[in-house]
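To: structure desk
From: M.T.
Subject: fold request, one chain
Message: Could you run this one when you get a chance? Sequence is below, nothing fancy, just the single chain.
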Amino acid sequence: MALTRSGLPFLVGGAYALEHYTTIARWTKDLDIFVLPGDVDGCLDALASAGFETEVAFPHWLAKAYAGRDFIDVIFSSGNGIAEVDKEWMAHATPGRVLGLPVPLCPVEEMIWSKAFVAERERYDGADIAHLIRACHGQLDWERLVGRFGAHWRVLLSHLMLFEFVYPSEPAPEARGWARELARRLEKAGGAPETSERICRGTLLSRAQYLPDVVAWGYLDARRRPHGRMSEEAVQKWTDAIDEQEEGPHAHRGGG
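Reply: Done. Structure tokens follow.
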């Protein structure tokens, strides 16, 4: 593999990682590669040298490499700017095999973290999260997972509550224990609004469904600086691509 020869750190995610953790196999014609933001150019150079056509589709999170009808998504963050790939992804990689080659896979904690914000009309990754928790709850580093969500821990709580609904007979003591811990955190916060700022965090979950909130109703967009990590230009480019047919199923990734 060109990336292995390049010496750059990378991870394989997507359908291949999901199958490794859950045994759920999906047909896919693409390969999701996760790299550090600073390694994107080197990764694309390595793929170009191997005969791929490359482009940076969205400068805040996604590049692509094409070989005929097949393609590689080179991912270095998420569509909402939250789940940026950092050294912690690499440090906690899981050994695996993809297409007969030994490769490092995305850590399950980072898979849950990034998938938790995918809630578009056309794609919701809640089932993937439930399946990952069912398969891996006993091996998860729960402290690290909760830490990944940071101030957005309510999103994780929502998925843990859904996990209990989906699997009422699954013991999963760690998952159930953290659901109650986060519920106690919510109760401790009381019923007062979390912030006085008129902000909409729905754009972190869906780049399309909460546009009325930020365009017509005067809410601040949680993706935009200083509230989020995205520039106004990046948000606009990501929004303009909603109706681009060539994006197909990849329009959903990374929530907003």
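Reply (cont.): Residues 173-189 form the longest helix (17 residues). Let me know if you need anything else for the meeting.
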